[in-house]
Specification:
The chain is mainly alpha-helical. It is built from 13 helices and no strands. Helix 2 crosses helix 3, helix 3 runs antiparallel to helix 4 and helix 3 runs parallel beside helix 6. The protein is globular. Keywords: Cell membrane, Membrane, Transmembrane, Transmembrane helix, Transport. It is a multi-pass membrane protein. This is Peptide/nickel transport system permease protein. It comes from Paracoccus sulfuroxidans.
């Protein structure tokens, strides 16, 4: 048997390589075969273009009140009509979409960061697994909508005084949604990390004394990116639905800052006379959520090697 001495080189650890261009092309090829994912991607990109570039073309102020143009139907001057105060519905739809999607993206980022961190620590460190999973199960057992309503009711006024009505409400809603939406991501990441710890390159890296921080950042995290990306797409849809529900209940943004859920709330009283005021924001919420869900399904299939190889 060969003995190791100070001059004997240590064995190289087979680190996981980042996806090559060929692998990325294969993932994209598999993604394109998912018809629902491609349709969802096109729809979501169109929605992003509408709310991002649309206000630069359609320059009507969404908060401008014109009592002489109240309750107008579809016309060249107002393609989607006006509301009971004479505000342009198209401008409000675009402004509302920008706010709703921003809430979804920021809340998703918070939930994803928190869930991924807890999942990594719980899956890798055995001593942290039990307490972190008990905390996760506690959050899963909480009634989330009443909890959100309580958080908004208690903190909206103090934050509004400190940061302004829009800034305070935005910060409160994204933190509230993000802090109550991380549990599924944590459980998914934990499961993948537990399986990853049995791999040969992890054992080899541990045998040569690799630090825990380097193990997590260089060996573990790159291999759980796929479920994190899928969870990110589904998290956007969840955040949009939750923000719309809060706004529909009148606990979201103030009336001067329209969101799709706020537009639904404002249209309740006149729903029978002007049904399109309910149909339009509801349709955009549904399209955004469905498109993101289909994108998530496509990413999950494309990034799963067991399916990609078929």
């Amino acid at each position: 048997m060969t003995e190791l001495n100070a001059n004997t080189p240590l064995p190289l650890v087979p680190e996981p390589l980042p996806p090559s261009r060929g692998q990325l092309r294969e993932i994209w090829r598999q993604f394109r075969t998912h018809r629902g994912a491609m349709v969802g991607l096109v729809v979501f990109v169109l929605i992003l273009l509408l709310v991002g570039i649309g206000p630069l073309i359609w320059r009507i102020d969404p908060t401008y009140v014109d009592f002489r143009a109240r309750n107008l139907g579809f016309s060249a001057a107002h393609p989607l009509g006006t509301d009971q105060l004479g505000r342009d519905t198209l401008a409000r739809m675009m402004a509302g979409g920008r706010i709703s999607l921003s809430v979804g993206l920021v809340a998703m980022a918070i939930a994803l960061t928190l869930g991924s961190l807890i999942g990594l620590l719980s899956g890798y460190f055995r001593r942290l697994d039990a307490p972190l999973m008990r905390v996760t199960e506690l959050f899963l057992a909480l009634p989330l909508l009443p909890l959100l309503l309580l958080m908004v009711t208690l903190f909206r006024e103090p934050l509004g005084k400190s940061l302004g009505p829009a800034g305070g409400t935005f910060l409160l809603i994204v933190i509230a949604i993000g802090a109550t939406s991380w549990m599924q991501t944590a459980r998914i990441v934990r499961g993948d990390v537990l399986g990853l710890k049995q791999r040969e390159f992890i054992t080899a890296a541990q045998s040569i004394g690799t630090s825990e921080l380097r193990m997590l950042t260089r060996h573990v995290l790159p291999n759980v990116i796929s479920p994190i990306m899928v969870a990110a797409t589904l998290g956007i849809a969840t955040a949009i639905i939750t923000e719309s529900a809060l706004s529909f209940l009148g606990l979201g943004f103030p009336p001067d800052f329209p969101t799709w859920g706020r537009l639904l709330f404002d249209a309740i009283d006149q729903m029978q006379m002007y049904p399109w005021r309910v149909i339009l924001p509801g349709m955009f919420i549904s399209l955004a959520v469905l498109s993101v869900n289909y994108i998530g399904d496509g990413l999950r299939d494309a990034m799963d090697p067991r399916i990609r190889g078929r």
